[in-house]
Amino acid sequence: MAKKNQTLGEFIIENQSDFQYSSGELSRLLNSIRLAAKVVNHEVNKAGLVDITGAAGDTNIQGEDQQKLDVYANDVFIQTMTDRNIVCGIASEEEDDFITINSQDELHQNKYVVLIDPLDGSSNIDVNVSVGTIFSIFRRVTPVGIPVELKDFLQTGDKQVAAGYVVYGTSTMLVYTTGNGVNGFTLNPALGSWYLSHPNMQYPEDGQIYSVNEGNYLDFPEGIKKYIKYCQAEEENRPYTSRYIGSLVSDFHRNMIKGGIYMYPKSTKSPNGKLRLLYECSPMAFLAEQANGVASDGYNRIMEITPTELHQRVPFICGSKNMVEKAEEFMRKFK
Ligand code: AHG
Ligand code: MN
Ligand code: MN
After folding, report:
1. Residue 168 and residue 41 in contact, taking contact as beta carbons nearer than 8 Å
2. Does the structure show a pLDDT above 60 at 66?
3. Which of 194, 212, 226, 299 is nearest to 255 (CA)?
């Protein structure tokens, strides 16, 4: 039960019993994520003050330039979870391969793996626009006692035990689900505590916002082009408003609160879209469904797509139920 003024720490403990197995372990894991998020938040907030922005010189596995804060956030999340010996494995958008974690005392006894996009929307840092962190948590499928394997990470979204994001925005929020709805906590920076500010978040069934990078319009599939024209048509409650930040976390967060649809379709240049199934789409799909929304690749539920590789990309359409269903209708019709 959500209580006014409840802190995230209190909420985690109070709701621990909703969770069917290894709840203490999951609570400790969520606690380490909230701690790492505060550390990253502190750094993100002073990005304009110190010379920390700009490409670090490396490129990640997707061939994109890494910003310094990407590297920093990646290190903080991995280090925080490793130091606390809280998970058996971590996969990150910024790492080529998954990381196996050993416990010194009990070898490989932890039951959870984490997949993370440590800094989402990183190209926005230099221009003082909101960025985020996305995380996804599974129970390992291999038995405890042995090192994690790739198959522990390549699980369908519907096997997630928890997922969430942090949005480093005008205020910093941590929003997550363990399969019992979606709750949002706002950081009080003076106290360093997260307070339950958005209990039981829900997408409105219908919305007025569409979010897509329209610069790629000419490259989009016919169904998406037709749906965009539908959004722009002058009918009873249209045209919709176009809003696109270019940070998935921020675009998702706004659309969940106000009602809207987010689309990153495939294009001729990127045949599977841009977003990563495991670090971005699958956790956002879990949150969306828990908030009464829908997440699809245009034809199938994101939550049911079987991953074949860690850095797999997938077309992503996510948002208010009626809007996503309408977009899917266009996809089927103009296949
Ligand atoms: P990341 O910074 O983790 O690489 O993710 C960026 C993603 C996502 O946040 C955003 O919605 C999308 O890229 C924007 O892509 P375009 O610039 O192609 O629109
Ligand atoms: Mn991202
Ligand atoms: Mn990223």
Report:
1. yes
2. no
3. 212
Q: Which residues surround ligand 3, an ion (CB under 5 A)?
A: 93, 117, 119-120
Instruction: Tell me the best of 275, 284, 317 to mutate to test the pocket of ligand 1, counting ligand atoms within 8 Å of each CB and taking the most.
Output: 275
Q: 273-292 pLDDT, tens per residue?
A: 999 999 999 999 999 999 99
Q: What is the pLDDT averaged over residues 225-234? A: 98
Residue bearing the CA closest to ligand 1, atom 3: 120
Task: Measure 264 CA to ligand 1 centroid, in angstroms.
Answer: 9
Contacts of 298 (CB under 8 A, 6+ apart): 221, 223, 224, 265, 315, 317, 327, 328, 331
Classify residue 224 as left (phi > 0), alpha (psi -120 to 50) or beta: alpha
d(CA 149, CA 99): 10
118 contacts 95 by C-beta, under 8 angstroms: no
Using a 6 Å cutoff on CB, does residue 70 contact ligand 1? Answer: no
CATH of 209-333, one of 3.40.50.2300, 3.30.1490.100, 3.90.1150.10, 3.40.190.80: 3.40.190.80
Ligand number nearest CA of 279 is 2
- Those residues whose C-beta lies under 8 Å from the C-beta of residue 148, and which sit 6 or more positions away, are 88, 89, 98, 100, 101, 108, 113, 140, 142
Residue 67 pLDDT level (bands cut at 50, 70, 90): low
Q: Which CATH class name applies to 8-198?
A: alpha beta
